[in-house]
Amino acid sequence: MSEELKKEMSSKGKVCLAYSGGLDTSIILAWLLEQGYEVIAFMANIGQEEDFEAARAKALKIGASKYVLVDVRREFVEELCFPAIQTNAIYENVYLLGTSLARPVIARAQIKVAQEEGCFAVTHGCTGKGNDQVRFELSFYALQPNIKCITPWRLPEFFNRFAGRSALLAYAAEKGIPVQQTAAKPWSTDENLAHISFEAGILEDPNTTPPKDMWKLTVDPQDAPDKPEEFTIVFEKGLPVKLIYEGGKEVTDSVEVFLTANAIARRNGVGRIDIVENRFIGLKSRGCYETPGLTLLRSAHVDLEGLVLDREVRAIRDQFVTTTFSRQLYNGMYFTPECEYVRSMIPPSQKNVNGQVRCAVYKGNLIILGRSSETEKLYDANESSMDEIGDFEPTDASGFIAVQAIRLKKYGRAKHEKGEAY
Questions:
Q1: Which of 56, 73, 100, 132 is flagged as catalytic?
Q2: Has 318 been annotated as catalytic?
Q3: For FRET with 119, which of 147, 263, 332, 415 sits at 20 to 30 Å CA-CA?
Q4: What percent of the chain is modeled with pLDDT above 90?
Q5: Is 310 among the catalytic positions?
Q6: Which residues contact 336 (CB under 8 A, 6 or more apart)?
Q7: Mean pLDDT over residues 304-308, rounded?
Q8: Cα–Cα distance, 164 to 162 (Å, whole number)
Q9: Which of 258, 243, 370 is CA-nearest to residue 306?
Q10: Which DSSP category does 261 fall into?
């Protein structure tokens, strides 16, 4: 690209585009150039199965002045996925927040690239009806308060011009932008190291069963191996620090632990869900998700806490930290004072979560085979045994029940006097 052309393009300034290589962001890249901006195409390697070289070539061919790829996989695992495991984070009792978890590290990397490249604005391809526009933009403004954000899918001059997919494809043809034909798979996807999401298209009917060939990461449970696969996950302070599998192989690096958990779950069909969720902006949305490794690691962590975590600590953590942190992640409130406060509560709740959980996976199911801890002794087999008294005095239970029954007796008498039935 000539210096004269660069100068002409930069008349409106330089912007950093979150580029995926797909249809929407490729169209947005061309449209931004058409509007007179110079565009830096930013891409995050967050573990998606992507041809990054092809994406680079495509962005430069369309006209980006530079393509920047940033590897954020380790910080994604260690700073977002692992705290989510420590808190057993979950949204609406079923969604493990795979998309939400990725947004803070992507936003942070994009702002850093924008600063390094001298961009006055950042831009993205999020739709005006989704959660991601909120997650990204709140993160942008927290990380760099004076940044400008260009939001094509909320600009009338853009969404009126590209009212449907046919308009996008026609513009791509006009500009010579190569696109993959996806009419046979009418849905959109978003992928990272933890999961992949599927939504829109035929999935917008919540009563439509996803076709078998939609699922990408996990084998169909019916086609999974006929023999259970066993493995052990070792935790220290609530963090999965080792995974032992295939008869003695071990991995201890954080990313490798996550990747190995992914591989085990994927080949055994574990981690699929199909839900209707409540988006932050007020709409309901149907989504299908594959979250293989995170499903294994979180479930094993939940199980170990039953053995080693104090009852009241667990209750307070569940009632406040888990629910609040999950909601903050989902709503895009990671870079906020309240989320910083909640995250500070995670380590104290996990200092005693040490031990190992033996597991098996079989045709879409995770089975806990056993759990143990060499350091935490809250569980006493002798005390809990039905075959011996141990240090627990059975007669003490009479007083315990009598005290608990005081208010219930009063409540029962009051209802009886009023003639009310249970």
A1: 132
A2: no
A3: 332
A4: 80
A5: no
A6: 138, 142, 328
A7: 97
A8: 6
A9: 370
A10: H
Cross-strand pairs, 236? 239
Please tell us whether the domain made up of 11-181 is placed in CATH 3.40.605.10: no
Residue with tokens 């850093």: 112
Residue of 278, 328, 287 whose CA lies nearest to 138? 328
CATH architecture of 189-309+352-372: Alpha-Beta Complex (3.90)
Q: Where are the domains of the chain?
A: 11-181, 189-309+352-372
Burial class (CB in 10 A: 0-12, 13-18, 19+), 377: exposed
- Residue type, position 296, single letter: L
**Which parts of 310-363 fold into alpha helices (H)?**
311-316, 323-331, 337-344, 346-350
Say if CB 16 and CB 114 are below 8 A apart: yes
pLDDT at 392: 72
205/276 Cα distance (integer angstroms): 10
Per-chain mean pLDDT for the chain: 93
Position of tokens 């089975």? 367
Considering the candidates 10, 154, 165, 188, report the single residue annotated as catalytic.
188
317 classed as catalytic: no
pLDDT digits (tens, 9 = 90+) for 96-124: 999 999 999 999 999 999 999 999 999 99
What's the pLDDT tens digit per position in 372-384?
999 888 887 766 6
Annotated catalytic residue, options 56, 73, 103, 135? 103
Q: Which amino acid is at 128?
A: G
Closest CA to 29 of 48, 42, 45, 47: 42
Collapse the DSSP code of 36 into the 3-class scheme (helix H, G, I; strand E, B; otherwise coil) and give the result.
Answer: coil
The C-alpha atoms of residue 303 and residue 131 are separated, in whole angstroms, by 31
> Looking up tokens 């199909």, which residue turns up?
274
Instruction: Tell me the residue type at 156.
Output: P
Nearest alpha carbon to residue 139 among 337, 339, 333, 343: 333
- The one catalytic residue among 24, 190, 286, 326: 24
User: Is 253 marked active-site?
Assistant: no
Burial class (CB in 10 A: 0-12, 13-18, 19+), 224: buried
